[in-house]
Amino acid sequence: MADGSVYVPAKRLTEFMIGALVKMGVPREDAIIVADVLLASDLYGVRSHGIAHLKMYYDRIKAGLQLPVTHWVLVHETPTTAVMDGGNGMGMVAGYHAMKTAIGKARANGLGAVAVRNSSHYGVAGYYTRMAADEGMLGMSLSNAHPSVAPTFGSEPLLGTNPIAISAPSDEAFAFTFDAATSVVPRGRLEVAARNGETIPPGWVIGKDGSFPAESSRLIEEIDRGNAALLPLGGGGEQMGGHKGYGLAAAVEIFSAAFQNGAFLSELHDSDKSGNPQPSRIGHFFLAINIDHFLPQKQFRETTGKILRELRESGKIPGEEKIYTPGEKAYGNEVRVARDGVEIPPAVQKSLQALCDELNAPGLDLEF
Amino acid sequence: MADGSVYVPAKRLTEFMIGALVKMGVPREDAIIVADVLLASDLYGVRSHGIAHLKMYYDRIKAGLQLPVTHWVLVHETPTTAVMDGGNGMGMVAGYHAMKTAIGKARANGLGAVAVRNSSHYGVAGYYTRMAADEGMLGMSLSNAHPSVAPTFGSEPLLGTNPIAISAPSDEAFAFTFDAATSVVPRGRLEVAARNGETIPPGWVIGKDGSFPAESSRLIEEIDRGNAALLPLGGGGEQMGGHKGYGLAAAVEIFSAAFQNGAFLSELHDSDKSGNPQPSRIGHFFLAINIDHFLPQKQFRETTGKILRELRESGKIPGEEKIYTPGEKAYGNEVRVARDGVEIPPAVQKSLQALCDELNAPGLDLEF
Question: What is the CATH number of the domain that holds A245?
């Protein structure tokens, strides 16, 4: 809880975001989706991807990197599969409709998979998998991203932080949700460290010379200049399994690009080789698995719940009081935020104020 | 290359394994599958899961933990999905037919997924995903396993080393294949360390007291007694992403058990709470994605190949000469073994000799 934070009720924040998005040129029905994805991120506690990102989307729209109107279209379709073109619009709008399409196909035919091309940053990957879990299905969501991560033994940031999200319904108050970058830490974690003047431990980032930088300030800039790179889950080299994180990131890159003949790795830079801005052409992959096609829903939920409970109740190392299960922290945060409102720290207040000024929208006021 | 190793041509080794398996009571057509999975492991360079394991399967059959005849049956089936009961037989036979079923469904309907219950150790996970890649499909294979891995902040070995394997066809000589345990290292790596009298680095294993043991001798026994546990990919705690490896392992547990109302976590011990031996009841999950339902096969293969080549040719840290791509080391090993034969180190020669003696099979001779 940063000093100077304000707490805004979720409903009020959603209205604000929808208003701002409409002002940016996003159609109202799409703005509702984008605001819901951003709010979800704040609810889950992934604050880097929530309202803190709203101005970034505006900056991208202004720079011509993505369009406010998302002309998504299914360019190829079968009863279980589809390829969507995201029309270089809002990634959340493409993502939402792609997962909805996958869920519809899985409802009818057991399984549904949709590959998306020409999309953009789609926010928190776990939003889409929870859509599937809410429909009683297992959901999987993958995306490539801006180059930031070096392959094992490499120094060049080439892979995105390429998230993997998986949700599965349970008999508990929340769905099992795994949602993580395939790097040790996401880019946002470096931004937080830089903001707080913290050093970072060896194994998060690798320098071009093979060293582990400790100093976090300007590290994101150094990565974007190719002078450093995030390390894949497992860290540098192979001793602690860095090749596994790298392999997972590469698998996500293939899922996200190869099913739709799309862009990948260095092609996902914000500017081309001459330095001119270019659309990100990010790709996503969504899978929905209809549990009813395997066994009664109730049995699946019970098994998932029992797995989570056995993990949670198992022996802890001395000094640790709690074993969390995937999705549990996010759920706890949701309950807290529903009660207290979304925390808006001073830096985000400032960026939202700047956004309102730019949009010349006096009606858009969070009363900071 | 251990002193005293012999090199046996792959064909000769396969004949030996089939002969031995038939002697163990495995029907000839099943023995052909089991021998092929074990040989593949030696070809890929995963020698812990190859012929080195043959005697372990015999020991398990003798102990009544699994049956030599695999009465697998599809207990539920739709055009895209199936649930298979593995009949507590040979995991490779169940796995082979389950992936074949998934591939058949994907050929007809775009996607195919098969959950398997009452199975046993199925060997190297990447065997099954390569089956899909050989048919021009993306394959995914997951399995739970004997409890060995502690959740983040936990000390109890509960999760299996729960492998994830993914293969995707490319335009290169080999398919992209990611195949890895979701722990930092597999159990086999500890056996190798113990055999060689090596110490292990902090972060591979956690003791009940929260310490990182360095001494590798008897560590597997300590894990099986619950006094230590393998750590998930990312290591202990959350700083290096240990919660991500844990989350992936938990997702694999759900995939492997929840779709077939199966056993999980502590239920997968070789003995029940009274110490009586019990079948392992391992579960698997197989997914096949028919690329032709998304776009022309050639485009997919080219994109995958380009991703692999860009990774391979990217900047290396000083002192490193090569960036490997997933599947590349296994392919290099295959080429080498096809030329030189499979290396059988002295310890494996001894276990095979003991197996031959027990099977009373004088015709089964590798002429060590």
Answer: 3.30.1370.60
